[in-house]
Amino acid sequence: CGSSAGKEREQNRSDPSFPLSPSTPNTTSDIVVDMMSASEASSAVKPAATAASVVGREILLHPLVVVNLTDHLNRCRGAGMGGEKMIGVLLGKATGKEVEIFTSFEVPLLSGQLDKIDIAYMVDRRALMQKNFPDFEIVGWYSIGSHNATDFERACYRQIEEHCEAPLLVTLATNQIGSQQRVLPLYLYEGEFVQQEQGRSLTFVEKQYTLKPEEAERIAVDQVAFLSSSEDSHAGESFSKQMKSFKSATEMLIEQIQVVLSYVVKTKSGAIKPDASVLRMIASLTDRLPSLDAPELVQPVKQETDQAVVMGTLSSLTQAADSITIASSKLTMGIDKLSRKGIYF
Q: How far is it, in rounded angstroms, from Cα 263 to Cα 281?
């Protein structure tokens, strides 16, 4: 009886609409962790599909998208822009009836036009993302603020549709964040056109989705949940303690490496009598280390180096552009003052 009850609880936890126990701190990262555990528990036995789910698409959502959305919201709130519309683009893969959403990026609105997306920025950003992830394509967009889709989302749909077939919409309901029910305030919709007397009308139909975490995402979300649910008075104190532990471990590792290096140097110079067993242990240890000349490591290192060079170049160009702007403003002010005195160039 107890085992059947446990299975029933795990099956209920796999449903995004099922409220989880509010016994622990109610944060988005905690809820994501709970849902990842529940999805693993229920992955072996899937419930019977309804007629809507058979003809519809199976949607897999990675936790990185949830982290990106909450980070976007927190940064906008910190900058005092919490009341403005916040949108972005979803990237992933669409294979047959399966859509897998891997990540996302923010997209600004055109200045003075609150229902117009900066399409040029979106296209450029997608091109940059596809250099590192050539298989990723636009599968939809997200909107932060309201639970239900509004006229704003309908206007965005028609713009995104030009770059994606049947785009999906993910909404983050900010009014449900921090509520007593531990439900992930994330909703997914699919646009459908309905024929009416006035013509075709766009409606959004809510769809079920499944969280599909990878190992790296699980580690990251677990760490965020640990920091957010820490008993310390401030999250900064917990982060500081964690960094101190990393520093201590790194310093200890450096000390041990220096001891081994000193032994090898003194043995080679003849200051210490060679010990065959110790040298074999050192040789075995060094054989475990990856070689930087390996083909599988050369390309990633080169890619990271190129990215660092590009970022440095962009920073220099930005500083140069700022300097030019300041110089131009000063020159304009000087010419204006001279023109008022009757001196012209």
A: 12
Asked if 147 and 171 count as a contact pair (C-beta separation under 8 A), the reply is yes
Q: In what order do the strands lie in the sheet with 58-61?
A: 199-207, 186-196, 168-173, 137-145, 86-95, 98-107, 58-61, 210-211
The token duo for 186 is 């994330």
DSSP of 272-294? S---HHHHHHHHHHHHHSPPTTS
- pLDDT tens digits along 249-277: 889 889 989 999 999 999 999 898 988 88
Q: Torsion-angle region of residue 178: left (phi > 0), alpha (psi -120 to 50) or beta?
A: left
pLDDT at residue 239 tops 70: no
pLDDT band at 182 (very low <50, low <70, confident <90, very high): low
Tokens of 40: 């693993």
Are the C-beta atoms of residues 163 and 191 closer than 8 Å to each other?
no
133-161, pLDDT tens digit by residue? 888 999 998 988 877 777 888 888 888 88
Q: Which residues contact 159 (CB under 8 A, 6 or more apart)?
A: 116, 117, 119
Look up the pTM and report it. Answer: 0.51
* Residue 171 near residue 190, CB atoms below 8 Å: no
**Residue 241: is its pLDDT beyond 80?**
no
> Could you give the 3-state DSSP secondary structure of residue 148?
coil
**Which own/partner contact pairs does 203-207 have at CB distance under 8 Å and 24+ positions apart?**
204/148, 204/149, 204/153, 204/169, 207/56, 207/57, 207/59, 207/168
The 8-class DSSP code of residue 180 comes to S
Could you give the CA distance from residue 237 to residue 250 in angstroms, rounded to a whole number? 20
What CA–CA distance (Å, rounded) separates 167 from 5?
39
Tell how far CA 54 is from the center of its chain: 30
- Pair 97, 139: CB distance under 8 Å: no
Segment 267-295 shows an average pLDDT of: 82
Query: What CA–CA distance (Å, rounded) separates 337 from 331?
Result: 10
174 pLDDT above the threshold of 90: no
State the residue for tokens 């309201």.
Answer: 146
